[in-house]
Each structure stands twice: as C-alpha cells, then as structure tokens.
Amino acid sequence: MKIQSRRAVIVLFLLGFFIFGIVFFVSSYLKNASTWVFYSGNKHIYKNGRISTGTIYDRNGLTLFSTEGGKVKYNSDKTIRTAVMHAVGDSEGNVSTGALYAFKKQLSSWNLVNGVYHGNGSGNAISLTIDAKLCAVAYEALAGRHGTVGVYNYKTGDILCMVSTPSFDPENPPKVDPDSEEHNGIYMNRLLSSTYTPGSVFKLVTLAAAIDNISGVTDRTFRCNGTLKIDGGKVTCPSSHGKQNLSEALANSCNTAFAELAIEAGANQLQAYAQKAGFNSVMYIDGIKTAQGKVDVTAASKTDLGWAGIGQYTDTANPATFMAYMGAIANNGVRVTPKLLLNSKSKQTSVLSPDTADKIKTYMRNDTILNYGERNYPGLHLCAKSGTAQINGQQPNAWFAGFLDRKDCPLAFVVVVENGGAGSKVSGPIAGKVLQEAVKTYAGKM
Amino acid sequence: MEVAVLNLNNLFCDVDLTSSSIDFVSAFLSTFSQIYTFAVRWIMPLLAIAIVVRCVLPLISKRRKSAPWGYLIMQNGVELPLYHWENSIGRSRLSDVVLNFPFISRSHAVITLSEGHWVITDLDSKGGVQVNGEDITEPTIVTESDVISLAGLELRLRNADAAAIAERTEENSGVQLSPGSTMLMIVIFQILGALQLFLAAGKDIKPTVILAFFLFIVAESIHYFIFKHGVKSFELEMLAYFLCGIGLFAVATRSPNAVIKQFVAIIIGIAGYSVFLFLLRDLDRAQKVKYVIMAAAVVLLLLNIFLGQVRNGARNWISLGLFTIQPMEFVKVAFVLAGAATLDRLLTTRNLTSFIVFSGACIGTLAITKDFGTALVFFCAFVVIAFMRSGDLRTIALICAGAGLAGLAVISFMPYVSSRFAVWRHAWEYANSKGYQQTRTMVASASGGLLGVGGGKGYLKNVAASDTDLVFGIVCEEWGLIIALTVVFVIVFFAFYAVFSVKSCRSSFYSISACGVAAIFLMQTALNVFGSVDILPLTGVTLPFVSNGGSSIVTCWCLLVFIKSERFVPRRAVKSLT
C-alpha cells in the first residue's frame, strides 16, 4: 500500500490547482466586487435601468432625491428639481458627474460584509454641500441663457451653488435632440465639464506672474495708445487708456499693458503661473473629475504670448477650476479644493504667496469700485474681474469671477454665460443676485 | 466593517393600528421577517463554519494505531511487520516489506488479510513462491504453521497478539465531538434557512416546499438514528446532508416546483448509498459486483447514444416516461469501479487495456452527445485512476498531450464549443449575450457580500440554470460568500480525505476508487464554480450534492461510498484473528 499512498499524490496536485483557482476567485472578488455590484444589470441597485436606492439631501436637509418602496422621488418644487439636476443627476445616469452616478457607492450602502443588504431596504442617505434654494435663484437669474453659476466657500471648500443650463426637470425628462441648439450639452454640467476661452479674467494669472517676476512692476506707469506692436504682430485695446499704473491697468482691463507684462515675464513664467492657477490639470471634487483648462505658450511667438497673456490665443479655462483660483487669491494664496459631500474633507494647496495674493486682492477690489460700481453690489465687499472672451464669428462669452473679501461670508464665485456679450454687463448682475441671496442666508453663519 | 442597522422607524411605520387585523398580521409578519433576516444572516454563516469544523476535525484526528496485523519471521529471527491489509513483498524500495536480496524480484509477492486468513499471491516472480515446499500458482491461504519460501528465502507467519489487534481496531480519537450535537446544528441550520425562505416568499410560498424541507429533515434524522450504532462515524454523511440542504435552498428559490423532486432524489440517493455500502463492504462481493455494474453502464451508454435528447446543446438526457434521467451521471459509478483493482491484481496484470477501452467508450459517448463538460470530468478521473494503477508518468503525460490536442480540435471545429471559448475571460464584453449568465453570477456574488442578502431575496433566481450551472452564484447572493466557501471547502475536504486515508485502506481496490471519486468531485466543482464566474469556460456540469438534478444527486451519494470505504473494517476478519 506504500506505493498507493505515493501515487495518490496526483490527487493532491489536482487539489493544488483547485485551491489555486479558489484563491484566484476570492482575490478577484475582493478586488472587483465593488465594480461588479454596480453593473447596470444589477436589480438590487437599478430598477428598469434607473438607480433606485438611497436618499440625497442638500446642506439644509432639503430632500433632493429619495427612494420609497423602490419608487424614485425628487424634490416637490419644479424649479429646484431643474436647478439641481446636474448636481444630483438624472436617474437614467446620463449626467455622469451627478451625485446619483458619482456617489452610487455611498448611496447603495454596499460593503464587503453586508453586500447590498440594508435593514430597511432603501439604501444610504448622503448630504450635498449645495443649497438647493440658492441654486434655484441662480437658475432663474440665468433666465434661459446657456451657462453656469458656481459659488463655493473658499475656507471649507463647500460648493453652495452649482447650476448649469440648459437643464431639465428629471421628473419629466424631455426627448433630447442632441443637434438642437436648445438641448446643446444638456447632460453636461458646465461648471465641472466645460472649458471656455477665458478672455480678460486670465489677466489675473498674468498679474500674478508679473508681480512675482518683474521687479518694480507695482510702481510702473503704463502708456496705452490702443495698439501694441510686437515683431510685426500687434495687440489692440478697444480704446486708448493713456497713462495708468498697474492697478488702473487691471481696472481698465488694458490689453496692451497685460500683453507687455506677459512678454516681459516670459513664456516659462506665464506657463508656470498658469499651472499654479490650475490650468493643464484636472481637479477632483470628491472623486468627480473636472475638465482640464489649457494654456500652452511653450512654442508661442512673441505676439501669441501677448495674446495668451490676455486670455486669448489657445487658452481655455474650466469654470470650477477658475473659481478655485479665485478662492486661492481670497484665501492668502491657499487653494481649498471645492467639494460636494458635506462630510468630506478638502485638500489644501498653496498656489500663491500671501503677499502676491494680497496685492491681487487689492487690485480686484479697486476694479470693482472703479469699474463695476459698488452700488451694483451693495454691502458685498466684492473683489471681481470680468472677461469678455472673443470667439471667432460668435458673440463673446461673458465671464465674471471673484470673491467676497469677508470673514463672515467667505465665498468665491464664477459665472459664465455662453455667447452672452460683455462680462460685467451680462454675468455681473447674475453673480450679484446669487451673492446677495447667499449673504442674506449665510453671513455670520459659516 | 459597517454593520447594517435596522431602521426601526421604517420597520414600524407600516403598522397602522386602525386598519383591519389582517393588515396588522401582514405588517407584523413583514416586520418580523426583517428582524429575522437581520439575525439569520449572521447566525447561519457561523453555524455553517461550526458544522464543517465539527465534521472535519474528528475525521482527520482519528488515526488507527499503526500496530502491525502480523509478522513475517525470517530464519535469523528478524520480524518483518505487516502493517496493511494488503502488503507487497519485494526488493523495490516501495514494497511494504522490503527484502533486499538479489534473488528476490522487485515485486515478488503480495500477502493479503482476507476473511480472517492470510493469503499469499505470487506476482510472476523469477524465483517463485513456495508454501511448504510446493510452488503456488494461485492465491494460497497460509497459517502460522506453514513455511513460506520466496525463491528459497524461508519465512514463517505470526499473527499479532489479541491485545495489539484490539488496540488497533479501537480508534484513537484525537478530538471527540458529539456527532449528535453536530447533527442537531445541521437540522437547526436547515430549519433557519427554510424559515427564511418561507418569510421571504410571503404569500407565494408553495406548500410542497415546506413539505419537502420537513420530510428532508425527518429523513436525515432517521438516517442518523439508524446508523448511529451501526457505523462508527457519521461525519461524511453529515457533510453530504449539509450540502444537500443548501442545494434545497437554491432549488426552493429558483424552481419551487422541483423541490419535491430534489427531495425524492436525495432519498433515492441515500438508498443507493446504503445498498452500495453493503455491496462494496465485502471485497470479494465488490469485485463480482464490479462487472455487473460495468455491464449495466454499457447499456446506459447505448441508451444515451440511441435515445438521447438534446438539452442546452448536449444530447445527454433520456426520457423514461414519467421522468427524465442523465445516464452519464450513473455511469460515473461504473467508471470508478472499472478502474479499481486489488494490489495483487494491480501488480500481476500491469496492462490497463480493459480500463482504457471502457474509458474510451464513456468519453467517446460523451463526445458524440456533445457533453464536453462531463467528458472532461471523466477524463480527469481516468488520468488519476490510470496513474494510481500504473504509476507511469510518461504514459500519463502522453495521454494528456493527446487529449489536449483532441480538445483543441474540438474547440476549433465545434461551433457550439468554440463560441463558449470566445466568451471565456471576456464575459463583460458579452454581458447581455453569451456572457449573460457569468456576468449575472458575478454581480449576484458581489451583491451578496460575505453574509448574503437573505434567502429568497436575490435576483439571480430569475436567470436560467441558476440552481444548476450557476448555483454557486445563488448561494453567494442569498446566503453569502462565507457559506458558499464552506460548500467548496467540503468538496476540498472530501478529496483531501480520500488521499489522507489511502494508507489505512483495506485494499488498493478502495484507495484507487476513492481517488477516482475525489477527481470527479474536484473537477465537477472546478468546472461548475469557476465556469459560473468566468475563470473557466462555462460547461454546465453540476456542483456535487448541491445543484438541482436528480441523476446528479443520486450519483453523488453513491460515489460517497468510495470516499467512505476507508472505514470498511471487516469485523469478522478481525474477530477470527483474535
């Protein structure tokens, strides 16, 4: 029988292979179960292809989405439903940056031990940082124009307002015609996923590069006669601004002065300050990836560098990332990454020196007072910069970005209206309405 | 790790005291069912682990004392102990009794303890075997008074003394765990599971399902009480009952109408098991029965070829009026027996011709009927048995290479097979076509987590074949990964136990067949479990003792006899020695 025990080892070989297979399965289970479970065919999580688990609240406990007995319910107010549609997401999962899709793991309460089991059968609740009523104000202020409004707390990172238009009522989703102007990019959250030519708001990047790299720039006098000739090319202003210091040049949004500064600071420095401001990289908002604004002046001619310095050339900016740059200027040069989940923590990155940030802040405040008018923004203590970004053959995109220089209400914001016209005239009033509402609700309570 | 917490508000909000009492009862039931599921999800996995551990520990810690049954005494007084029922004698290092003399053949003779007598057989040795001076040509009984001579080397036989044998037959129990408590735990496990299914089904519960569970629990308890005093250990049977119970859970969710059928199959299986236990217990009888069963298997093969009906691409069903069977399942029993042989036969007739012919017929039939999964199971058992018999690695390697080429040919030329191979490891790319079953199994297993979503509350039950080919997925989803892994562990243990007990087997007849069964169980489980989660191609074989399927269940119980055969200690034989 000795010989038999020897030969029985062949079964142990088989057993070895089998156990290897089990180990392989268990390890791929541990690695992939969280992916497998969210496959769209999983009826534990989706009913008729719709996510059917969990509850979503806004920062004040207003219910934005809930599931009761497998039935999906949104907020009862149509304007609110439409205003927060991109933040919450639609139940078909078309808005991939929406909470329903991006936070499905938190919503379903899936974990390795319990699987999708939950005692009461309706998943987990999550609270978003947005204020749904503030979003509704922003939605109405946009008044049917395509664009986006973003407001966030530059100390904590909480996004209070995130609205993108066109939008729709998720309770009665429209038949979307992707080619129509009306539905253009209807599933896209423009704050997170779009990029636009920034125009003059980009001067805030050039300004930072100039302050740090050109000695005596803050005491310099600039002369503008309407045109700056550079190596055969030229940069023009709508009118000649005459004699001005740096602060006045920003308030005038003088193209020739800032083209000159961009060329003087050099391509390398402009590129470096654009990276610091968040260009050429994506931002993760609780795991949701933003689009990437781009600045590339490495191979630009002198003229092109001048144009790049005033936010034209090939420059593009993502509104959410630019809003975070506004936050960094307001917050002594420290950028707090915006966030959407009330109980998550934000990343902090130092992007400017406190000194530089402070100078830019002073100039932006001066810009508001000289240019946009304190009476248009009473009591806000607004620091802002407008942008009217020229695009070939179309009405310019209207930008308005900045922040409130207030300890009791530390908010940064961005407003973009597509093909809207002049930044301060079109986007400024929208920002004013939303910020007044925010201050009314939150001043002293943040 | 987070623990799911019951939302009590939600639990009681349904209870409206002003509504009619029927509403109140249904509200109470739904509340109770939620609390029940919450508790049972934790209790059952723990119970499953306890049951398996309590069954396994006594089996692997019980070792018979290795006292010899007798001695061969050389003329110079040296005693050569005979430790086994079957002992080979020869010059080879692997002989049980090594006689290192040039005139002794490598495998010279076999001395066997049979029916209380020692029997010596010459293995066509050069020098021959003489008993009391006469050359023997047939197995010959020898006693203490006979003089045995191996090519002139004289030996005498001495039986071990009574005390040593008495000590040997008594098992040395390392771990003693009351089998009664283990059995009780199994019954509790099954009642808890059945109640969970009952509560989950609510008004839709079928009375036949309740009846089947009730009868099943009664049947296994009766079996336990009958055999409590008859056989020394009931652990292997208890493990099989544990698996059958989980199988019934899966059948009850997927095909409630088939639960009674599955129960009847288990009963027939236990009957078959008892009959085989009786038939195979006696080695002489087993050797005679072997040929009857092989003849019956040939009939089944022919029936399959001529009367077979196609289901799911394979022609492996035959209809017998009231019910249908899969004949190739039953052939597995004959196949294992066909390969078995006692040590003297093993060492005299070294050729495998008759076994190869029988295997060829089986695998050929499976190829004709396009049942390639089962063909793979048979082939695996063939390799194991052939190696156990011949020990010839080179031949086995050649056979495997040949089979590999044949397999490649099948994969490339049979559209039905090659389409399954195209999906293999790419199931997610075909998630709604050919990879549907595999992806849904993975999704279900992930949804279940370690503890499951609760019996009857899964969705895999709506997928075709989820209580047969995908049964691993249904167990994962509804009862959790822990219980699913204990099921796999039991199969692993069956195979391990077959190898572990070869040394103490009474005859190589039993050890070969036990290893053959181990190969069948392992291969079936591998193809079933790994096939359903896209680690292997999905071939549609059953998970032993668990999958829905009458033929499969009956066969598994019959095959279990071979794993058990290590326990065949013929009391008569021992008594006559003492």
Shape of chain A: globular
Largest interface: A-B, 49 and 72 residues
Number of strands of chain A: 19
- Average predicted confidence as pLDDT of chain A: 90
Q: Report, as a whole number of angstroms, the end-to-end distance of chain A.
A: 83 Å
Count of helical stretches of chain A: 16
User: What is the radius of gyration of chain A?
Assistant: 26 Å
* Regions with little confidence, pLDDT below 50 for 5+ residues of chain A: none
Gyration radius of chain B, to the nearest Å? 27 Å
Q: Roughly how much helix do the residues of chain B carry, as a percent range?
A: 55-70%
Shape assignment of chain B = globular
Ranges of chain B where pLDDT stays below 50 over 5 or more residues in a row are 1-19
Q: DSSP strand (E) fraction of chain B?
A: 5-15%
How can the largest sheet of chain B be summarized? Answer: 6 strands, antiparallel
What is the CA–CA distance across the termini of chain B?
Answer: 61 Å
What helical percentage do the residues of chain A reach?
25-40%
Q: What does this protein look like?
A:
The complex is a heterodimer of chains A (446) and B (578). Chain A contains 16 helices and 19 strands. With 446 residues, chain A is α+β, with helices and mostly antiparallel strands. In chain A, a hairpin with a 2-residue loop joins strand 4 (63-68) and strand 5. Chain A is globular and about 105 Å long. Chain B is globular, with a radius of gyration of 27 Å. Chain B contains 20 helices and 16 strands. Chain B has helices at 8-13, 21-61, 162-169, 179-201, 207-227, 235-254, 259-281, 283-307, 327-339, 343-348, 353-368, 372-390, 393-413, 415-423, 436-448, 471-479, 481-500, 508-532, 550-564, 571-577; strands at 63-64, 70-74, 79-82, 86-90, 97-98, 109-114, 117-122, 129-131, 134-135, 140-142, 147-150, 153-159, 171-172, 309-311, 314-320, 323-325. With 578 residues, chain B is an alpha+beta fold. In chain B, helix 11 (353-368) runs antiparallel to helix 12 (372-390). In chain B, strand 8 (129-131) and strand 9 (134-135) form a beta hairpin. Chain B has a six-stranded antiparallel sheet, with no helix packed on it. A five-stranded mixed sheet of chain B has the order 5-4-6-7-10.
